Every structure is written in C-alpha cells, then in structure tokens.
C-alpha cells in the first residue's frame, strides 16, 4: 500500500508533527507499505539538521532519519524560501521539493494522512 503523510505544523509548537512522524515510523515498518512524507509550511523546519533541544525532549530531525532510509522525505521549496531555509541546512536525505511533485505523490498514494 502506498501511503503519503503530509505534515503542516511547526516542529515544537504542538505534538502534531511528533505524532505524524510516530505514525509514519510505525507504518514504514509494515510489510507491503511504501511511505512518503511531505513537509509543508512551518513543518519544513522539522528537517533542519542538528537541532539542539533539552535533554529528554523528542528530536524530529532524528525521527525523520529512519523514514528517509525506508521511504522519501521532501520539503516544500516555496515554504523553505519563505523561511530562509536552504537545502544544505536539511538532514541528509531530506530534500527540497515542489507542489508539482506533491501532486504526483498524491496521485500515487492509496492513502493520504494529513497532520
């Protein structure tokens, strides 16, 4: 089954991105599931490498790494530009993308989950 997870919220302003990535991780471990994650709006900040957080706090950048190994993680390029985020600031394997690619992914997906 092809699953697309779209994340919209800022990284640490709510638990929505955290829960989206938790579910994406669980899905990625299932046999027969092909997973893609698209980060929109403030969610592009989830993919910034080297985030410094208090001990014991979850790290969204670290949560994305296994998803990259098992699928694809893309960030909205327009959203990155609006936030002054360059592709070189992203974790390895996450990449800049376009609305056109998201459109292709939406047509590819059998299930789309939005957070």
Which features does this protein show?
single chain, 115 residues, alpha/beta, five-stranded parallel beta sheet, 5 strands
Tell me about this structure:
This protein is of the alpha/beta class and 115 residues long. α3 (77-82) links the parallel β3 and β4. The two termini are 19 Å apart. It is built from 4 helices and 5 strands.
Fold topology:
Blueprint: E1 2-7, H1 16-28, E2 34-39, H2 60-70, E3 72-76, H3 77-82, E4 95-97, H4 99-108, E5 111-114
Parallel strand pairs: 1-2, 1-5, 2-3, 3-4
Helix pairs in contact: 1-2
Q: What is this structure, in a nutshell?
A:
Helix content is 35%, strand content 21%.
Structural class: alpha/beta
Form type: globular
If strands are numbered along the chain, what order do they take across the biggest sheet? 4-3-2-1-5
Number of beta strands: 5
- The low-pLDDT segments are none
Largest beta-sheet characterization: 5 strands, parallel
């Amino acid at each position: 089954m092809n699953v697309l997870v779209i994340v919209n919220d800022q990284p640490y302003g709510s638990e929505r991105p955290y829960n989206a990535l938790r579910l994406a991780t669980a899905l990625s471990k299932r046999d027969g599931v092909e997973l893609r994650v698209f980060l929109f709006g403030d969610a592009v900040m989830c993919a910034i490498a080297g985030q410094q957080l208090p001990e014991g706090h979850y790290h969204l950048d670290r949560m994305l790494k296994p998803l990259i190994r098992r699928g694809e993680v893309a960030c909205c390029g327009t959203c990155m530009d609006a936030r002054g985020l360059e592709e070189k600031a992203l974790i390895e394997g996450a990449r800049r993308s376009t609305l056109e690619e998201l459109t292709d992914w939406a047509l590819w997906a059998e299930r789309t989950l939005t957070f």
